[in-house]
Amino acid sequence: MSTISQTKKNTVSKLFLYTLLTIAAFLSIFPFYWMFVMATNDNSAINSLPPAYIPGSELVTNFTNVINTIDFFGAMWNSVIVSVITTIGVLFLCSLAGFAFAKFQFKGKNFLFVAILVTMMIPPQLGLIPQYYIITQLDWLNDLKAIIVPGLIDAFGIFWMRQYISSNVPDELVDAAKIDGCSNFRVYWNIAVPVIIPAFATLAIIKFMYIWNDFLWPLVVLRDEPSFTIQVALRGLIDNYVRDNGMILSGTFWATVPLIIVFLLLNRLFIQSLTEGAVKS
């Protein structure tokens, strides 16, 4: 009887858990589905009561209006360049810094690490004017370098890599590599990098999404349409007199697709990095 009772309790617990997960998944996916529905309808269907809940037939028309209004593909390409280069730079530089903080002993190590963590508490808007002044002195206005270079170092990335390397790269393995004559960089490249691939995936998703969705800084430093990133370009879809919601949401929908692709590609490694410590004894 006790075994049957326990089985029933486990079944009820799993059913409750799966129900919660299903509701959470629905709430997470519904905004994207709703955006797609709006992107396939015209203004009359969007503004009707009750509003449309199923996709319409205006997807091609709305997207055609988008590409006729802004340089959509050029802006997408600029965002791809900026996001990919910045993400790769962050992964390399932050993992190097994290490896140094995790495995090396040097003077001022703790002070420097705390100083990096403190910068995470400073709102980015406070650095807008100093960064803008530096960019103007370098003559990088209206150039993608103005977005790429300031984003190559990330305080959270250093913190994340330092914590992951500390818990997943054994000190004994590092010491053995040094005894065999490996340089510090070779220890990093041959010992640490293969172990921290899941951490790379997590940081890549976070940084790629942040750079792709960034609006304020690109708006400040990019002036002409050929250099616009997608978020700045989408601003051109908003008209002060006539608002075509179907066109706006069509552009927003297609601008979101690359983020979903990146997440799906790195999803397995992302989950692995988050559950790494749960399987250790």
TrEMBL record:
It comes from the Bacteria. Keywords: Cell membrane, Membrane, Transmembrane, Transmembrane helix, Transport. The keyword Transmembrane helix applies. Pfam families: BPD_transp_1. Its main location: membrane. The chain crosses the membrane at residues 15-36, 75-99, 111-135, 187-212, 247-266. Belongs to the binding-protein-dependent transport system permease family. InterPro entries: MetI-like (IPR000515), MetI-like_sf (IPR035906). It is found in: Cell membrane. Residues 76-266 form the ABC transmembrane type-1 domain. Gene3D superfamilies: MetI-like (1.10.3720.10). One of its GO terms (cellular component) is plasma membrane. One of its GO terms (biological process) is transmembrane transport. It is a multi-pass membrane protein. This is Cellobiose transport system permease protein.
